[in-house]
């Protein structure tokens, strides 16, 4: 039984679909994925429209990347593919006695993983011939009597090592982000491919709504869409994959936010979002195995805090100094993750600041009044930063780009810096911010400290993004960077 037979069989997947005809585009994709013949001119046209290829390959694909709009049925189809491969394909020739083969669906977060796990569990428990295969079920996995396990995991390259993987489905890969890694999608792909290599018929599928023009999914599309050699690339809008979606909903979304709606519903890459700082630049400025520096007498240090109330965001502190050579050095980077008592953390940070001879710092200007009071108790004065986080990042970029900054070897700092995005806004003022659902607390503290330390050598003037035509005078405090940066540091 091939996958199309299983989809149409009343004893397998057919009862799971209210109207299988509305999933026709998926059946065309599955035909090409598994090397099955297409039926009719309409299917061949749809195939060409979505793949850029005149005809499907004669054999099953080993790798495929699917780019579809929201509500296309991606997660449910991932569960169907995983269930079919687990139950209807004989993997015993590739497994040693007692060895387990694994089918992984790798999701962006625990919530999405839970949704897909519920789909898989529902499929196996509603289909009698599949239910009899289940030997054991856990929160993450189904263990089957045929030696195959189906598991859902969150995106982490460490969790994939040591397994014999039969199939890996990378869910919403365009949105994979991690504060522990600069490029989690690339790292996971690098980890999963060797695990698939020992099984000749193994399958790798990346499936997602598109996002920015960066990352594995975009690279695969750019390099292989419409190409006979390489992974099979399928790109289609929501309405193509799911004709039941109300067209008016999509039309209204396109009117309200054309860029976002084009990505969400029409599966077009966003042109208004791009990576702000590349991994290569961050790595070039990072001093390996330098985790913190001690105080040096005679050097003036600058501090910057990004406070938090202790519930959702981290409370962070950065300390930096400028050297006579022109280098701007990040000396200290502290983070307290929630939950915590804010005043206790403020007291701890004040001790650190005093050890570096610092009695006055800048802090994120959106912090509450309690911050000033909490630091004042320990004789540390806090000034609200004149720059927003976005402006700090704009001013940090030249220090990173020209190698002036020296960063500590901190994976969360690297992950947050490379996760920053430049978003084009009306009026020509770009916004630099973290991607949705993530944080930039460490990056903000580091950027603030480095900019505070570096601005003095530039001169008394600094340009604010809030009013690009306004140049404000600022008091000079301490050591600054060399005049070679005057032409392009603040802008």
Quick structural summary:
This protein has 491 residues and is an alpha/beta fold.
Explain what this protein looks like in three dimensions.
There is one protein chain. By secondary structure, the chain is α/β, with parallel strands linked by helices. The chain folds into two domains: 3-270, Rossmann fold (3-Layer(aba) Sandwich), CATH 3.40.50.300; 279-485, Nucleotidyltransferase, domain 5, CATH 3.30.420.240. It is 36% helix and 20% strand. The protein has helices spanning 3-8, 24-33, 40-51, 74-88, 110-126, 128-131, 184-197, 216-224, 238-241, 247-256, 258-264, 279-285, 342-355, 369-376, 389-401, 411-418, 441-458, and strands at residues 63-68, 101-107, 134-137, 141-144, 148-154, 164-171, 203-208, 232-236, 273-275, 301-306, 315-322, 328-336, 360-363, 381-384, 405-406, 420-423, 431-434, 461-463, 471-473. The strands form four sheets. An eight-stranded mixed beta sheet has the order 3-4-5-2-6-7-1-8, sandwiched between helices. It has a six-stranded mixed beta sheet with strand order 14-13-10-11-12-15, with helices on both faces. α2 crosses α3 (40-51), α4 (74-88) crosses α5 and α15 (389-401) crosses α17 (441-458). The longest helix has 18 residues, at 441-458.
């Amino acid at each position: 039984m091939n996958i199309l037979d299983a989809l149409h069989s009343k004893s397998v997947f057919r009862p799971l679909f209210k109207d299988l005809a509305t999933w026709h585009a998926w059946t065309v994709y599955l035909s090409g994925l598994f090397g099955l013949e297409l039926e009719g001119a309409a299917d061949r046209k749809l195939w060409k429209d979505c793949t850029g290829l005149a005809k499907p390959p004669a054999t099953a694909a080993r790798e495929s990347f699917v780019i579809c709009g929201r509500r296309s049925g991606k997660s449910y189809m991932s569960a169907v593919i995983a269930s079919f491969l687990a139950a209807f394909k004989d993997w015993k020739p590739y497994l040693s006695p007692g060895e387990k083969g694994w089918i992984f669906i790798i999701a962006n977060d625990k919530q999405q993983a839970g949704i897909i796990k519920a789909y898989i569990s529902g499929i196996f428990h509603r289909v009698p011939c599949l239910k009899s295969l289940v030997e054991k079920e856990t929160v993450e996995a189904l263990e089957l009597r045929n030696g195959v396990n189906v598991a859902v995991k969150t995106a982490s390259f460490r969790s994939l090592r040591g397994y014999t993987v039969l199939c890996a489905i990378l869910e919403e890969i365009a949105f994979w982000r991690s504060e522990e890694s600069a490029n989690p999608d690339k790292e996971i792909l690098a980890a999963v491919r060797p695990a698939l290599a020992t099984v000749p018929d193994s399958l790798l599928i990346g499936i997602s709504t598109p996002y920015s023009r960066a990352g594995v999914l975009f690279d695969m599309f750019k390099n292989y869409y419409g190409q006979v050699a390489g992974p099979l690339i399928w790109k289609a809008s929501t309405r193509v994959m799911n004709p039941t979606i109300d067209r008016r909903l999509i039309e209204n979304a396109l009117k309200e936010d054309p860029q976002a709606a084009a990505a969400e519903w029409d599966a077009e890459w966003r042109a208004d979002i791009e990576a702000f700082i590349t991994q290569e630049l961050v790595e070039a400025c990072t001093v390996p195995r330098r985790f913190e520096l001690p105080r040096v007498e005679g050097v003036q240090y600058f501090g910057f805090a990004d406070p938090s109330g202790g519930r959702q965001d981290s409370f962070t502190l950065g300390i930096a100094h400028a050297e006579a050579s022109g280098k701007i050095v990040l000396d200290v980077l502290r983070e307290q993750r929630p939950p915590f008592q804010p005043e206790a953390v403020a007291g701890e940070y004040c001790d650190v600041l005093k050890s570096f001879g610092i009695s006055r710092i800048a802090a994120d200007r959106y912090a509450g009044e309690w911050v000033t009071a909490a630091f004042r108790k320990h004789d540390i004065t806090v000034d609200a930063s004149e720059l927003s986080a976005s402006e700090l990042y704009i001013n940090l970029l030249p220090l990173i780009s020209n190698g002036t900054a020296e960063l500590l070897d901190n994976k969360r700092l690297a992950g947050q810096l490379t996760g920053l995005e430049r978003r084009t806004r009306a009026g020509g003022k770009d916004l630099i911010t973290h991607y949705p659902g993530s944080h930039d607390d460490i990056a903000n503290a580091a950027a603030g400290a480095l900019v505070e330390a570096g601005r003095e050598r530039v001169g008394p003037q600094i340009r604010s993004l809030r009013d690009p035509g306004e140049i404000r005078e600022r008091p000079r405090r301490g050591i600054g960077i060399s005049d070679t940066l005057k032409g392009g540091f603040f802008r």
